[in-house]
């Protein structure tokens, strides 16, 4: 399992570290890590992200930018919203040395479905919940998935996998069930 650590270092540097093969807690291949590093470097070069000082196999060294999270009321400020709009416009208008089509989400869900098809549970309660979730015919649902419903579907799949691989005690299968219930409820409203 990967661990994400972001710590402020000397002279305004930040160190971002994740476990081998993980990026933000999600399993990744070497290609994904290289692509992320290239994208991060380009964003830094164009002043759309912190400066990049170095990359190593399990993380990177980057500029530390003191900040705070935005609150809903902050977005009502025309100055803040305007600055976000300008930066987002610059970001989306950038020419990148790779395909910017949004393939990650659906590609990741396809990988999750394959991993889920190979899962087995031995504990009776987990097995019953897992079988209930399999009854949703997730592979067929994936073929007709609309982008607006993808969030519920993605987190439902993620939760099933976490039920098997996570060391954190949490009702992952119950969470998956709630996400798929929301998915089917919203799907019915869209039909």
From TrEMBL:
Molecular function (Gene Ontology), one example: choline kinase activity
EC top class named in words: transferase
Domain of life of the native organism: Eukaryota
EC number(s) on file: 2.7.1.82
Pfam families for this protein: Choline_kinase (PF01633)
Coiled-coil segments on the chain, per record: none
Keywords: Lipid biosynthesis, Lipid metabolism, Phospholipid biosynthesis, Phospholipid metabolism
A GO BP annotation: phosphatidylethanolamine biosynthetic process
Name by which UniProt lists this protein: ethanolamine kinase
Organism of this sequence: Lepidothrix coronata
